[in-house]
Fold this protein.
Amino acid sequence: QKEVEQNSGPLSVPEGAIASLNCTYSDRGSQSFFWYRQYSGKSPELIMFIYSNGDKEDGRFTAQLNKASQYVSLLIRDSQPSDSATYLCAASGGSYIPTFGRGTSLIVHP
Amino acid sequence: DGGITQSPKYLFRKEGQNVTLSCEQNLNHDAMYWYRQDPGQGLRLIYYSQIVNDFQKGDIAEGYSVSREKKESFPLTVTSAQKNPTAFYLCASSDRGLTDTQYFGPGTRLTVL
């Protein structure tokens, strides 16, 4: 059974701080990893994908992948109240059927 | 303007009725997917299709049916056999490329009266 685990939270950080969201996956064959943001009542929106070990940066967002530890993380720098949402992690092993985690709720308070 | 559209945004169903949720994409993606999301839950895969005229059951296919007659369309029917259909339904598509990235439509919220 392929699993993607995330702490459900909520993770609460002050405005301007770095938010760190973590995700572990069980399938060593996973090749691509995704972070989605989902606002309440809305559909998931892709933030980033990563498929190579190391860091990938896009604006205030940095995805980190460690395949040896089967660990993916998302860092959000200079967190804003508008970043308050649920963040979904997903892993795909090339079968085109990704496995999603249940999501981590992030609250950025002023 | 490329994207995925779902309709209706809200849908109400009476007990014993079949209802059909629409999903259309103009991204020229081969693969399309239907997910169900319940409050506080993750995404659960209902059906997926990787090519026209072919589709496969996901983890929770019972009480649902789909068709894939055109590349751009993947409608989902919620039948009366689905005992607890109230949920948020999400359609997604992917290009099955290197990154296999899925993009989601805006969703349909189905409520059983």
